Amino acid sequence: MIINSSGSSAARVANTALMVAANRFFSSTARSAVVAGDPVVFAASKGLGFSAPNKWGHLVRAPSMVRGFSVVRNGSTLAMQEEKENRSAAAAGGGNKEEKKLMSYWGVEPSKVTKPDGTEWKWNCFRPWETYKADLSIDLKKHHAPVTFLDKMAYWTVKALRFPTDVFFQRRYGCRAMMLETVAAVPGMVGGMLLHCKSLRRFEHSGGWIKALLEEAENERMHLMTFMEVAKPRWYERALVITVQGVFFNAYFLGYLLSPKFAHRMVGYLEEEAIHSYTEFLKELDKGNIENVPAPAIAIDYWQLPPNSTLRDVVMVVRADEAHHRDVNHFASDIHYQGRELREAAAPIGYH
Ligand SMILES: [Fe+2]
Ligand SMILES: [Fe+2]
């Protein structure tokens, strides 16, 4: 390996010794300073590959083709990086060269992914193997009749929450959807986090429920990212979200600790309300009271929708998602009602 193209052998030895000492004793900043002047040593970092779920839901190293999307793994050497930078700078009219050097050094540079048509995959917030076609055949009318005291409490808590929501938003369904998704994305994350901590505390598996609940949170957040494209929040709406999140996160956290049976049942009913809200949204679209604008690009890619899809198509797939969340949460509550733990039943991972 060439250490320093211009130095004598003594200089090479000194440089190598400095590198070893830097790696062993110095901070990352100091190490960077040592290697920064030597492209070849600097290039010893390695790139991160991709992982994609196989048919059993396990993450596997991505091959060169992932579900029809070609994946090009980037080289990790600075030399290769600089060559690429020159190409991308020429294409994009410049870029942050220092940032790219840093990414190359740590090996965390995202790989390039392209669509089947050869165009670049432009979303960093989700990758092609996380996209799916929504199951629109799901029964939207399924309802869990509240029988026990806890169920009735969950049901009426949700009904009570709907009243101020109706008053505040009235028929502004785009805005309503955007705001409600900021709340809907909380329970999955809180539940997943608490199950994660429980798994660590008890030295036991979660049965896949951590992943299933985090998937739900991610899916809800994608709903929000989608509706952000059709309704921009005003300052007082942002303030409301901060306030509501502060209260709801902590309330749900405590509620889940005290009774996951109640917490999941409540989310099941929240999802039933979400289905109702999106049905009303569709009615307004069909009446022409809300303009059926073209679907946002993020939605077309996430739900694998046809390019000419509209807002109506997006609301349809989001409503189908909510129906799936309803089933997952009522199912989770039912498991607890049977006196079992969630990990004893296989989690509905990838249930869309
Ligand atoms: Fe949602
Ligand atoms: Fe939902």
Notes on the protein architecture:
The protein contains 12 helices and 5 strands. Helix 4 (78-92) runs antiparallel to helix 5 and helix 7 (173-202) runs antiparallel to helix 10. Strands 3-4-5 form a 3-stranded antiparallel sheet, with no helix packed on it. The protein has 352 residues and is mainly α. One fe (ii) ion is lined by residues 184, 220, 271, 274, 322, 325.
Q: Care to count the β-strands?
A: 5
Helix content: 55-70%
SSE order: HHHEEEEHHEHHHHHHH
Q: What share of residues are in beta strands?
A: under 5%
Mean pLDDT: 78
C-alpha-based Rg, rounded: 25 Å
Main pleated-sheet profile: 3 strands, antiparallel
Bound molecules: fe (ii) ion
Alpha plus pi helix count: 12
GO biological process, one term: alternative respiration
EC number: 1.10.3.11
Enzyme class: oxidoreductase
Pfam family, one: AOX
Structure at a glance:
By secondary structure, this protein is mainly α. It has 12 helices and 5 strands. It has helices at residues 9-25, 28-36, 39-42, 78-92, 97-106, 149-169, 173-202, 209-227, 235-258, 260-287, 297-302, 311-337, and strands spanning 51-53, 59-61, 65-66, 69-72, 112-113.
List keywords for this structure.
352 residues, mainly alpha, three-stranded antiparallel sheet, 4% strand, globular, binds fe (ii) ion, superoxide-generating NADPH oxidase activity, electron transport
